Amino acid sequence: MKNKDYNGMTDNRVYIYDVTLRDGAQTQGVDFSTVDKVAIARDLDTLGVDYIEGGWPGANPTDDSFFADLPKLKNAAFSAFGMTRRAGRSVGNDPGLNVLINSDTDHICMVGKTWDFHVDVALEIERDENVAMVRDSIERVNKDKSEVIFDAEHFFDGYKANADYAMQCVRAAYEAGARWIVLCDTNGGTLPHEIADIVTEVCKEVPGSHLGIHCHDDTGNAVANSLAAVRAGVRQVQGALNGLGERCGNANLVSIIPTLMLKMGYTTGVSEQGLKQLLHISHTLDERLNRAPDRSAPYVGESAFAHKGGLHVSAVEKDPRTYEHIEPELVGNHRHIVVSDQAGRSNILARFRDIGIDVEDDNPKISRLVDVVKEREFYGYAYDGAEASFELLARGEMGALPEYFQCTSFRVIDERRWNAKGDLVTMSEATVKVRVGDETNMAVAEGNGPVNALDAALRKVLIPIYPALEDLRLADYKVRILTPGDGTRAVTRVMIESTNNAGERWNTVGVSTNVIDASYNALRDSLIYRLYQTQTLSMTAESSKTTDAA
Questions:
Q1: 93 CB-near residues (< 8 Å, 6+ apart)
Q2: Do 379 and 506 sit in the same domain of this protein?
Q3: Burial class of residue 331, CB neighbours in 10 A (0-12, 13-18, 19+)
Q4: In angstroms, rounded to a whole number, what is the distance separating the alpha carbons of residues 154 and 166?
Q5: Which of 242, 270, 298 finishes a domain?
Q6: Phi–psi pair at 428, nearest 5 degrees
Q7: Spans of the chain, pLDDT less than 70
Q8: Cβ(139)–Cβ(177) under 8 Å?
Q9: Which of 452, 465, 423 is nearest to 516 (CA)?
Q10: Which of 107, 259, 326, 514 has the most CB within a 10 Å radius?
Q11: Is residue 10 part of a domain?
Q12: Pair (380, 410) in one structural domain
């Protein structure tokens, strides 16, 4: 059944605008690198959001670096964020506006004031001048870009204080040609019933097909407010993965997207297959931020579909709808019976299909792999953010992974000293013994840190034998302490992101009480994964040649 907004539209399509890379980067303790932003953008594109706000060009070196080489997307469109022109400047003489116009993206989001209090006190300009700033900026950017999105900052506070002026700003944006006017609950203080009432009134003057909602979670209502706004007529929702954002965060798209699709009957750019990636993408972001996923998170938390013994388990086994509001697999999750611990098999089979392993559901090796994964995850391994390590583990358990090499021993020495110039330096030296086939080779290398030295020593042995490793390089390295109560004896998890000249990327994981050992485990998986992928591509090419010759 189609939903109707106030204007009588039968448009069931809601557009998802992700702000993780900009608004989410303002989260306390979050500091995205360019590599992080590229990886997150690719995940968002896989999910199927409509817009990805890449950041603010000209604001900082990270955003400049990101916009200078935007990754190619299949589903989403990049948006650049900035401000309307400054007071007292023309649109042609405003440096910030010109940066937006010159950015390599066809979609621009500009923020402007709609609360008379801010215009009077913060900007200290005439209210008509603020309206002109909105209108002039949108008209100018529209000449060069496909879409202009106007973020009406503090709109709900402004509307409650002076509805006529807030609407004057919104009308100016709409009449100037903004594709979307986004109503922002910037301080997160508005409640769902207020959102619904105000959006209903706005829809009387601006079509809901041109309205969006941007909510913060300072009262814990960001998701509810966003959904209330959609019901009242807006057709764009802004939010962040896992609710990242300043203070209490932005509206959580991980909760909003499945609710819109599975509960409210709306369609989005997210396909059914994309929705099944929701848990994986949510947990991958947490791993990238070196933090544990929220066990109680709606839809994607480990406890979201967990049942602990007694009547609940009996009821769920008879009819899952008793205690499960959706099928967990729709969002990539699974039922977890805590007492019998039978969860996981369906997820393993789904991951097998994703990596191209064709296996029968009743294959006894599946049960063994489920047990191995559970044992490793209990110890600290996490495969949501390390797909390459999972694939190697799976193929190894299925007996389909060659032994390319074996590092029989390694030693790493760090030396901290003053050099001849009187500078304090720290050097690392690694010695490795590696067996390839029947031959054992030894190599010594120095590096900028123990992991770099270990990597260099392994390459000395392996590249002459496996030239495919020559273009492999480490793009990112993260360490997370899993048992902080143990102090310096804590178990550590190392995540390594690797890449090559073709731009391919893969993630591996290692866990140990020794950070060097954990690093080696992740590094070894990275090398082996590259070798396996190269071998697979080579075999595919040879098979193709044989077929063509026949």
A1: none
A2: no
A3: buried
A4: 9
A5: 270
A6: -120, 140
A7: 1-10, 308-319, 336-348, 350-351, 354, 537-550
A8: yes
A9: 452
A10: 107
A11: no
A12: no
DSSP 85: P
Tell which residue, 205, 254, 265, 204, has the closest CA to residue 230: 265
Do 379 and 445 have their domain in common?
no
pTM of the model: 0.76
Same domain membership, residue 431 and residue 388:
no
Where b means 16+ CB within 10 Å and e means fewer, 148-174 reads: bbbbbbbbbbbbeebeebbbbbbbbbb
Count of Cβ atoms closer than 10 Å to residue 127 Cβ: 16
pLDDT at res. 347: 61
For residues 35 and 54, give the distance between their C-alpha atoms in angstroms, rounded to a whole number.
13
Q: Which residues pair with 149 in a beta bridge?
A: 109, 180
Residue at 327 is within a domain: yes
> Does 466 share its domain with 430?
yes
Tell me, yes or no, whether 135 and 207 share the same domain: yes
Q: Per the domain annotation, does 179 fall within a domain?
A: yes
According to DSSP, the residues that pair with 434 across neighbouring strands are 407, 441
Q: How much helix, strand and coil, in percent to the nearest 5, is found in the chain?
A: 45, 20, 35
Residue 192 belongs to some domain of the structure:
yes
Give me the number of domains the chain comprises.
3
CA dist 81 → 21, 158, 178, 186, 296 (Å): 11, 22, 14, 16, 32
Q: What is the DSSP letter of 276?
A: T
The sign of the dihedral angle between the CA atoms of 71, 76, 78, 81 is negative
- Which domain-ending residue is among 243, 270, 297? 270
pLDDT of residue 1: 30
For the domain that residue 503 is a member of, what is the CATH number? 3.30.160.270
d(CA 79, CA 178): 14
With CA atoms as reference, report the closest residue to 215 among 197, 242, 191. Answer: 191
Tokens coding 116: 């008379």
Query: Which amino acid, one-letter code, is at 11?
Result: D
Burial class (CB in 10 A: 0-12, 13-18, 19+), 505: middle
CA atoms within 13 A on the CB side of 395: 20
- Identify which of 264, 203, 230 has the alpha carbon closest to the alpha carbon of residue 1: 264
> Which pairs with CB-CB distance under 8 Å and at least 24 residues apart come from 413-422?
414/450
Domain span holding position 73: 15-270
Fill in the amino acid letter for 132.
A
Q: H/E/C letters for each residue in 371-411?
A: HHHHHHHHHCCCCCCCHHHHHHHHHHHCCCCCCCCEEEEEE
Helix ranges restricted to H, 270-309: 272-275, 278-288
Q: Are residues 241 and 324 located together in one domain of the fold? A: no
Rounded Cα distance between 378 and 23, Å, is 34
Residue tagged 């008793």 (tokens): 322
Q: What pLDDT, on a 0 to 100 scale, did the predictor assign at position 337? A: 58
